[in-house]
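#onboarding

Welcome to the new folks! Below is a worked example of what a typical request in this channel looks like: someone posts a single protein sequence, and someone else replies with the predicted structure as tokens. Don't worry about understanding the tokens yet, we'll cover that in week two.

Example request:
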Amino acid sequence: MPLEKPGFRENLARLDEAYPGRETLKIADVAAYLGVYRGTLLGDKTFPAKKVGGQSKYGGSYVVPKVALARWMS
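Example response:
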């Protein structure tokens, strides 16, 4: 079993406190939480965003699993 990165549990606890009861976050929430632009996050190939609803003419939206975000932040 792989070891957790240092800071993972702390990051997850802070995200749980900021967004209780949610397993995924909107990209706008993550951008505001981290204080960066949405485009900056989506431009980072390691950022754990998942595109949903991409079949619409508007291109869909992105969600970010909270656990994956905590891991990415570590």
